[in-house]
Each structure stands twice: as structure tokens, then as C-alpha cells.
Write a sequence for this structure.
């Protein structure tokens, strides 16, 4: 069941109506209902993987209790190791088994030996990277005495498997989500309206922007050997908008769905393409994952404390691990390494904490200096996205080589020309709403009702026009 599917358009209103009209007076029944709905939502992909989700939930729920109740540090550490080892073991098997086998065989063959190996036909459970990190953060926080464990399994299971965030995040923390699950929720009209608007904008990002870009990107990348350099450059730019529209669109729909049920999820994107540096970009892109690696990997490694060598080492580690988290391919490692290189000057010079506020705050337009920095940062990230999109390192390097050597004007004949005015409209709306939680949160807020509703109907019309043409699966489902 996809967020952009007819099934979800039936599922969410049904949950909403039952949740508020029948079960709103009993928190325990309400939580159980949403948990069962979340398990049904997940089972629509493959019901067999529900057992893996349930096992992971029981493992971390039990480990959290054991860590808290253990009377020695050694016992606490043993339970922590048990939880981390099993969680990462499952994640490693389903996601990386074939990659490691094939990479080891390639290395053996390059050394002149004969390698006999076989891979397995492994189906990656959707969302495993996300719900595994939900559970691990819970166990880590109990071990570090940041939270106390819950003794209510249903509440904990709902924290792990809440359907809006189950398959592609954002990666929630128990400190933020569990208290909302544990307390009685009352219907908030303004919050629900905000949720609907955020869902609308998320659908626009996905269906109108991302899916239309995807059609052009697939055409360019699949035939890159016969394309001009200008066309390949355009393909990289369009993929930047595709992945942003796709993933931030998913996050908007997730946050909006949570609001309809009275639950506020953490913000996952904060207008990253308006960043003035790579450091700022990574504070605004996939915020929940970046903060997860910062808190549970970067800081334990020493963070930015110590000498320059240590800061460089720690930065490369988190970016390489982040790249590998995205998939079992050397392209993701190179993508992570490139971003580490791009951010390195600010790490060495300790300027990575600059630009904490949104660009041109309170102004209509940015300065020339800000515009240059935004464009330069966007081009750097777009260059790195080539490796993210490519199927292999060979394709990525060939793509870049041809893009540089055969640089010329792009060939637009085979592309949908409507994508360009749509992108201009999209960028304009995002710019106007960049100081808000999502772009259309307060757009036309002070205008006459007719202008506001005309804008909403315009978005709906675009969704209807483009919704049937280029439907694509969400990119982050594969992670």
C-alpha cells in the first residue's frame, strides 16, 4: 500500500473516522487499533515479514527492560550487545549478504585465485533499516540513562511500527514519540487541517514533481552512452529534484497522516536546496537519519573534540556508514565519501555551524553572495547524486566522463517540456514558504479565502492530471 495509492486514500480516512468517533475515549483500545492498522498496512507488502517486525519489537522491548533492571554494568552491556548484534545481524543478512559474498569473490579473483560462490535470492523486508534504527535508539537511550523503559508492550510496538513512519521514516526517538502515545489525545481541528495541507503538498512533490522527473531521469540514465553532455548534466539536476520531491514528499505525507491522529512526528526536511554550504545541507536533509548517526556514532567516537585528524576520521566514518546504510553497492559508499570530502573544509576550519538560520529570512530575495552559495552547494550535491542514482561505479564514472567531455546544450526533444514550468512553480512555492514547517503551511494565510482555496484546487487538478501517467514507487522503500 503506497501513500499515493487509491488504497491509502481509503485506508487513512477509515482509520481517522474510527479513531476519533468510536475509540477516542479509550486510549488503550485506541493504541491497539492503530497498532493493528499499522500491522495491516505493513502486511500489504508481504505478511510473512510481520514476524520479523514482531520479533525485532519483542527483542528490543525485552532488552530495554533487562538493561534497566540489571544491577551491574556488565549485565547491562550484555543485553545491549545482544540487542545490537541480533538487530544488525538481521539487517546485515537481508541487506548486505550478497554484496559481501560478491565483493569477496571479486577480490579473490583479482588476486589470481578461483572463487566458487553462490548468492541467495533474498527479498529485502521493506522498512527494515528504519524500524531497526527505531529499536536501537530506544535501547541505546535506556542504556545511557536518557529514558526509562515502558512496561506496556502495545505502546512500545506502536512506537516502532506506527504506520506513517514504518516503511521510510522519519526515524523517531522514544523521547519524542512515546510520550505522545502514552497520553490521551484530543481531536485538534487546526492540527488536522494542517495535516491535510501537508499531505496535499507531499502528494504534489511526489506525483507531480518526483514522478515526472523520474521519467526523464530514467530515460537519460538508461541511454547515457548516446546522450550529449548537456543532457547528462540536465539528468543529474532532474534527479536532484526527483529524490527530494520523492523522499520529502513521503515525509510530508507521513507527518500529515500523524497529525490527523493527533501525533506530531519529527521534521525530516528543512528546505535543503536553499542551503549555503554542504554542512548546512546535511542539517536540512534527512534530518532524522543525520541526527541519529550524530548521537549514536559521531559523538561516541569523540565528535568534533580532539585534534583535526580525529575530526576528519569521525566525519568520514559517519558519511561512509550513512552511504552504506542506503544500500549494498559501492556507489553509495562513494556518494558518502564525496559528501565527506565536500564538508571537510568546514570541519577543519570549524565553520560547519555557520548558517543555522534559513537563508534571506524576512526578505523576498537572497543577496548575490547567498545566491551563488546556494547554487554552488546545489551543484555539489547534484554531482554526488550521480553516484547515488547510478547502478554501478562504472556507469557513474562513464556518465561523468561523457558529461564533461561532450558538454553541449541538452536535447529536450524526448523530454516532457511541462516539467520545467512545474519545477519553477515548485521552487517558487518552496521559497515563499521556506520559513514555515512545510511550504504551503501559511501560504495565502492572510489572503481572501477564494485565493487560498483556488491554490488548493489548482494543486488537486495537477494531481489528477499527472496522477495516472507516471506512477513510481517511493525511492526510499528500497532502503
Amino acid at each position: 500500500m503506497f501513500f499515493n495509492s487509491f488504497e491509502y486514500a481509503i485506508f487513512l480516512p477509515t482509520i481517522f473516522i474510527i479513531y476519533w468517533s468510536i475509540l477516542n475515549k479509550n486510549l488503550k483500545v485506541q493504541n491497539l487499533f492503530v497498532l493493528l492498522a499499522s500491522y495491516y498496512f505493513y502486511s500489504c507488502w508481504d505478511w510473512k515479514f510481520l514476524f520479523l517486525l514482531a520479533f525485532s519489537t519483542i527483542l528490543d522491548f525485552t532488552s530495554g527492560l533487562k538493561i534497566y533492571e540489571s544491577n551491574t554494568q556488565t549485565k547491562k552491556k550484555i543485553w545491549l550487545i545482544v540487542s545490537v548484534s541480533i538487530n544488525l545481524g538481521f539487517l546485515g543478512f537481508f541487506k548486505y549478504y550478497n554484496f559481501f559474498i560478491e565483493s569477496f569473490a571479486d577480490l579473490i579473483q583479482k588476486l589470481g585465485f578461483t572463487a566458487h560462490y553462490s548468492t541467495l535470492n533474498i527479498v529485502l523486508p521493506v522498512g527494515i533499516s528504519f524500524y531497526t534504527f527505531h529499536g536501537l535508539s530506544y535501547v541505546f537511550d535506556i542504556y545511557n540513562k536518557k529514558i526509562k523503559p515502558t512496561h506496556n508492550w502495545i505502546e512500545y510496538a506502536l512506537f516502532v511500527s506506527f504506520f506513517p513512519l514504518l516503511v521510510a521514516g522519519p526515524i523517531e526517538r522514544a523521547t519524542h514519540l512515546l510520550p505522545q502515545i502514552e497520553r490521551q489525545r484530543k481531536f485538534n481541528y487546526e492540527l488536522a487541517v494542517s495535516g491535510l495541507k501537508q499531505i496535499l503538498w507531499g502528494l504534489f512533490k511526489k506525483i507531480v514533481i518526483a514522478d515526472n522527473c523520474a521519467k526523464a531521469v530514467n530515460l537519460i540514465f538508461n541511454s547515457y552512452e548516446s546522450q550529449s553532455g548537456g543532457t547528462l548534466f540536465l539528468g543529474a539536476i532532474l534527479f536532484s529534484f526527483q529524490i527530494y520531491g520523492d523522499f520529502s514528499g513521503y515525509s510530508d505525507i507521513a507527518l500529515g497522516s500523524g497529525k490527523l491522529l493527533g501525533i506530531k512526528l519529527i521534521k525530516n526536511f528543512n528546505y535543503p536546496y536553499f542551503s549555503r554550504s554542504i554542512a548546512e545541507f546535511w542539517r536540512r536533509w534527512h534530518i532524522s537519519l543525520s541526527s541519529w548517526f550524530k548521537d549514536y556514532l559521531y559523538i561516541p567516537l569523540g565528535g568534533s573534540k580532539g585534534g583535526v585528524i580525529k575530526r576528519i576520521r569521525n566525519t568520514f566514518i559517519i558519511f561512509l556508514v550513512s552511504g552504506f546504510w542506503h544500500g549494498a553497492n559501492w556507489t553509495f559508499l562513494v556518494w558518502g565519501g564525496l559528501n565527506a570530502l565536500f564538508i571537510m573544509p568546514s570541519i577543519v576550519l570549524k565553520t560547519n555551524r555557520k548558517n543555522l538560520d534559513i537563508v534571506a529570512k524576512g526578505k523576498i530575495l537572497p543577496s548575490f553572495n547567498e545566491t551563488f552559495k546556494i547554487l554552488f552547494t546545489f551543484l555539489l550535491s547534484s554531482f554526488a547524486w550521480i553516484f547515488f542514482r547510478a547502478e554501478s561505479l562504472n556507469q557513474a564514472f562513464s556518465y561523468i566522463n561523457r558529461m564533461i567531455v561532450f558538454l553541449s546544450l541538452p536535447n529536450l526533444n524526448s523530454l516532457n517540456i511541462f516539467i520545467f514550468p512545474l519545477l519553477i512553480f515548485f521552487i517558487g512555492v518552496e521559497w515563499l514558504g521556506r520559513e514555515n514547517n512545510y511550504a504551503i503551511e501559511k501560504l495565502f494565510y492572510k489572503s481572501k479565502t477564494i485565493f487560498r482555496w483556488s491554490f488548493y484546487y489548482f494543486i488537486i487538478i495537477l494531481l489528477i492530471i499527472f496522477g495516472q501517467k507516471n506512477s513510481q514507487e517511493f525511492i526510499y522503500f528500497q532502503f
Summary: The radius of gyration is 23 Å. The chain has a mean pLDDT of 91. Residues 243 and 317 are 24 Å apart (CA to CA).
